[in-house]
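Thread: Newbie trying to understand structure tokens

Hi all, I'm a second-year student working on a class project, and my supervisor (Dr. K.) asked me to get a predicted structure for one chain before our next meeting. I've only ever worked with sequences, so writing a 3D structure as a token string is new to me. If someone could post the tokens and maybe explain what I'm looking at, I'd be very grateful. Here's the chain:
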Amino acid sequence: MLVGNPADLDRRIRELERDFRRAGLPNLAEGYRATEDVFTRALPVLVVVFSLNMSAALRLEFTLAQNLVAFAVAVGVMAGAFGILNVLRDRPFLSIPRKVGVPELAAFVVLPAIPPLVYRGQVGTALLTTAESLTVLLLVYLVVGFGLLPILRWTGGRFVRQLRASLTLLVRALPLLLFFSLVTFFANEYWQMFGLAADSTFYVAVLLFAALTVLFLLVRLPGSVRDLERESDLAGVPLTRAQRANVGLVIFVAQALQIAFVALAVWLFFMLFGTLLVNTEIRRSWMGTAGHELFTLPFIGQQLQITRELARTAAGVASFSALYYAVAQAVDSTYRDEFVTGLTDQLRETFARRAAYLRLLDERAQVGEPAAR
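---
Reply by user tm_fold:
Sure, no problem. This is what the structure looks like when written as tokens:
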């Protein structure tokens, strides 16, 4: 039974699609396309990046006149290319594109690589510029296409409620976690390994811990999404692959925020612990050096030293703790049940809006109105 006229249906459908975007689930909108719904919204960012890449034609060793000519040629090529695309799409030559499609994206990638080839003959620079443009498109697709910023805002606003399930697991994992953390923190080999390592080695080691943590999060992600589907009202319409990926990203971000909170808490704890207990003599006996002082803090008639080696060692312990906590998440069935149930309760409203949204789409199809996005 129809309950609204076409104008009201379109208005309500657009409102629900905006709700999906605010909840970090833009892919719940039917007919969601990257070219029209993702890159078009990111057009201002793409214009800025495109202009910066086109300015690669400028060189410090050129005279002002030469740089002005090079810049004018680059702008002319850019305006001419987009003007031709406008004409092919029956738009005025100098109009701003209302939608970013495949031709515009191809121009975004290819055109900035032309100045390095024309003015410098540098194939490597041209390939690097192309790679940078492709990387920007990938980041835009991930951030805008899957609503990463709204997801961070949505999960951040519900962080305290999600942390309740996390604290239950943390209490069970805390004794063993603290035991290993304290043992490793007060081992001189650990200080030598993290505190005296080269910058590149240290950052690669921390990134390796982070990569393993992400891997353990991803292991359980498909099962968590299936649990959410079973617990939610989908109006008889299963989620598509892109929608499942979008829901999975919400779960991933929610869990990653919990792990980041635990890692930060561990790091702050050992920074305070190490500042109070690990003095200059102990650092010298463990590492053969007093370390590199970052700053000092006054404390009951003495000066406590904060060193780079302390910060690094605490970071090493925190990264290990984050990995341990991620593994505990993956194998603890009680935590998974509590977390999935809690997240299902929070997402139930969004899925209920999706059910209403699908009914409105069916209703609009019955009255024969075209989709208005």
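A couple of things are worth pointing out once you decode it. The chain has a mean pLDDT of 78. The chain has two domains: 26-145, 148-366. Feel free to ask follow-ups in this thread.
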